Amino acid sequence: MEEIFQLCDEITILRDGQWIATQPLEGLDMDKIIAMMVGRSLNQRFPDRENTPGEVILRAQSHLAAPALHSRCLL
Q1: What tens digit of pLDDT does each residue of 16-72 get?
Q2: Whole-angstrom distance, CA of residue 34 vs CA of residue 29
Q3: How far is CA 24 from the centre of its chain?
Q4: Which of 41, 36, 43, 73 is nearest to 58 (CA)?
Q5: Sequence spans of domains, the chain
Q6: Strand ranges (DSSP E) for the chain?
Q7: Which of 25, 37, 61, 62 sits a CA distance of 20 to 30 A from 44?
Q8: Could you give the CA distance from residue 11 to residue 26 in angstroms, rounded to a whole number?
Q9: C-alpha distances in angstroms, 58 versus 8, 25, 31?
């Protein structure tokens, strides 16, 4: 979405199919645009996530999709 600032002079925000605002880009930043789009302020655009791998729940081995493909193992 960063290219909006390079390509546009004005922005129109829609949320859930409803018009929210039409404003000049001057004075807006990405956080303000996102807040108008989602209806609230976001503290973190990409919050940290914790992921601890657990046991394997699906394992597929030696399956061929087509004769031209070589056997692959998915873990």
Answers
A1: 999 999 999 999 999 899 999 998 887 766 777 888 888 988 887 766 666 655 555
A2: 9
A3: 25
A4: 73
A5: 1-45
A6: 10-15, 18-24, 60-63, 72-74
A7: 25
A8: 10
A9: 47, 48, 40
